Amino acid sequence: MPPRWPTKPDRQDPAYRKIDDRMNFALHVAIAATINSGLWFFHNLKAATWAWLPWVTAGWVGILLVHLIYISAIADYSQTPNKST
To answer: pTM for this one?
Structure first.
């Protein structure tokens, strides 16, 4: 069941930005897991080894770790001032 937001979604709302960033991170984890598991599956079926595959997986895990650190420790979810046009 998808999450429900009690008000109209607005990127200015700090709580909405926080949950949006976390759902975006979850999507990135799912994509990385799907692609990496598929690559490792076909790697295990082949007789030849793919020497580059551990580097791709490690790089992707590193990128996900940086993303996690950003959304959990660095991102500022304080109220943003309204821009008057």
So the answer is: 0.78
